[in-house]
Amino acid sequence: MEHEARSARQLWVEDTKGRQRMPDPVRNAAVRAVMITSVTLVQAVVAFYCTIAGAWLAFPMTISTVASTVVATWSVLDVWITRQVWRQRNGVVSEPSSTARRPLRERHGESRPDAAPLSEAA
Fold first, then answer.
1. Is residue 93 part of a domain?
2. Is residue 95 included in any domain, yes or no?
3. pLDDT confidence of 34, banded at 50, 70, 90?
4. Which parts of the chain span the membrane according to its record (predicted)?
5. Residues 29 and 77: beta-carbon distance below 8 Å
6. 5 against 21, higher pLDDT
7. What is the predicted pLDDT for the residue at 29?
8. Which domain holds residue 38?
9. Using only C-alpha atoms, what is the Rg of the chain?
């Protein structure tokens, strides 16, 4: 009986209020940045171990790690730039913000008939 109650409950429950999926160009740039960064970290570890062991591969690995660090930095910046470009091209809604107010005359109806313009009142 207890076993049936346990199996009736789901192990995984979908959360419907999750974050929206990233746009395809941004996701591609993010995947590329993660791959490049992970390769750079592996290179750094190999360069460190080669340096400790005194292997001949230490110097070339250190040089390639420095170059990969520059490429990894650019790839992370590429994610940010791609995200901003996508937002500018596709994500901007051309509506006033919720804090923007309508002019006072529109809120209270047309101007009062007994109020004269300032040029005539003087």
1. no
2. no
3. very high
4. 29-49, 55-81
5. no
6. 21
7. 95
8. 22-88
9. 30
One-character DSSP codes across 19-82: PPPPPHHHHHHHHHHHHHHHHHHHHHHHHHHHHHHT-TTHHHHHHHHHHHHHHHHHHHHHHHHH
Domains in the chain, number: 1
Residue-wise pLDDT for 41-77, tens only, equals: 999 999 999 999 999 999 999 999 999 999 999 999 9
Write the CA distances from 18 to 14, 15, 22, 51, integer angstroms: 9, 6, 12, 45
Give percent of the chain above pLDDT 70: 66
CB 26 within 8 A of CB 83: yes
Residue 7 placed within a domain? no
Per-residue confidence (pLDDT) for residue 9, from 0 to 100: 73
Identify whether the C-beta of residue 42 lies closer than 8 Å to the C-beta of residue 6: no
Residue 32 lies inside a defined structural domain of this protein: yes
49's CB contacts (< 8 A; 6+ apart) are none
CA distances from 81 to 29, 31, 68 (A): 10, 14, 20
